[in-house]
Amino acid sequence: MELLEPDVQQLWQEAATGDDPACRRLVEALYPVVIRIVRSHLPRRVAEEDLTQEIFMKMFARLHQYRGDRPVSHWVSRIAVTTCLDHLRAQKRRPELRWADLNEDEAAVVENLGTVDPSPSAQDALHSRELVQKLLETLRPDDRLVLRLLDLEEKSVAEIKVLTGWSASLIKIRAFRARRKLRKTLEHWKEPT
Amino acid sequence: MRKQDPYQHLLARARRAPQKQDTTTPLGFATRMAALRPRPEPWNPLELWAALMPKALGITALACLLALVFCRENRPLLQEETLFVLADPTFLITGGF
């Protein structure tokens, strides 16, 4: 069950005094927020639970830095996003995705792109999402984060500003650059050989 | 059929994919986090000493350096005789004889 922000604020204050039950309840209250971010931005070869644990440890270490000027969930979301980004940046190698690397379903998705399809099946949607994930992995970590938040999670530039601390123009430039690269890859795949 | 931007089309389809919905905290996770959390250590005066020590050393070194520079600049004033006069009270009584 997700708690309302005033309840989380109250828990935060109690946790800051070192109260163990309050710390437990705070983790339970913020877990849904953190796990959604982790699942969206999970780098390859990093376990979901390890990353979540790292984020909560950082949160507790910075417990006294929270000033109460914004919701606790926003503050923790920012810690989660920056931790994921640090892990993405640590993975120096980005896989190159070629037409030959796609499986049959993904290749079919690419072939059907560009034509109006009012209601794709759940399987098609799933294959499309997997293909987007693979395409995003070819991008630089910062570009990948921006595009995932903007295009997949449909967050606004203002929301991404809060999450990352980047300026609106930087976010837009990164999105533009990343979209151009992905569009180019898709168009290249669709070219008749 | 109308043509679409392939990237936007792919995104539109990808957004329809069902997502992993379960966001309940795993059993024991919150307890483990609460137990593992870094706790603020009790105040230790030695830590304050350790923190201030390098600064104190730096200030002392600077003072010594300034003293050396001052001595070097004012060497003519610090004549041997003057020093002797200041250092030996008998010199005042005997007048150097």
3D architecture notes:
The complex is a heterodimer of chains A (193) and B (97). Chain A has 193 residues and is an all-alpha fold. Chain A contains nine helices and no strands. Chain A has helices at 5-16, 20-41, 48-61, 72-90, 104-111, 122-137, 141-152, 157-164, 168-190. The longest helix of chain A is centred in the C-terminal third of the chain and has 23 residues, at 168-190. Chain A is elongated and about 60 Å long. Chain B is elongated, with a radius of gyration of 39 Å. Chain B has 97 residues and is mainly alpha-helical. Chain B has helices spanning 6-14, 29-36, 45-73, 80-87, 89-94. The mean pLDDT of chain B is 79.
Task: Kindly provide the radius of gyration of chain B, computed on alpha-carbon positions and rounded to a whole number of angstroms.
Answer: 39 Å
Largest interface: A-B, 45 and 33 residues
Mean pLDDT of chain B: 79
- The N- to C-terminal Cα distance of chain B equals 123 Å
Number of helices of chain B: 5
Q: Which H/E pattern describes the elements of chain A?
A: HHHHHHHHH
Describe the oligomeric state of these chains in a short phrase.
Answer: heterodimer
What is the molecular shape of chain A? elongated
User: Any low-confidence stretches of chain A, pLDDT <50, length ≥5?
Assistant: none
Radius of gyration of chain A: 19 Å
Helical content of chain B, roughly? 55-70%
% residues in beta strands of chain A: under 5%
Alpha-beta classification of chain A = mainly alpha
How many H/I helices of chain A?
9
Query: How would a crystallographer describe the biggest sheet of chain A?
Result: none
Low-pLDDT residue spans of chain B: none
Q: Could you provide a short overview of the structure?
A:
The complex is a heterodimer of chains A (193) and B (97). Chain A contains nine helices and no strands.
Keywords:
heterodimer, A: 193 residues, mainly alpha, 9 helices, 69% helix, B: 97 residues, 5 helices, elongated
Task: Please give the structural blueprint.
The complex is a heterodimer of chains A (193) and B (97).
Chain A: H1 5-16, H2 20-41, H3 48-61, H4 72-90, H5 104-111, H6 122-137, H7 141-152, H8 157-164, H9 168-190
Helix pairs in contact in A: 1-2, 2-3, 2-4, 3-4, 5-6, 7-9
Chain B: H1 6-14, H2 29-36, H3 45-73, H4 80-87, H5 89-94
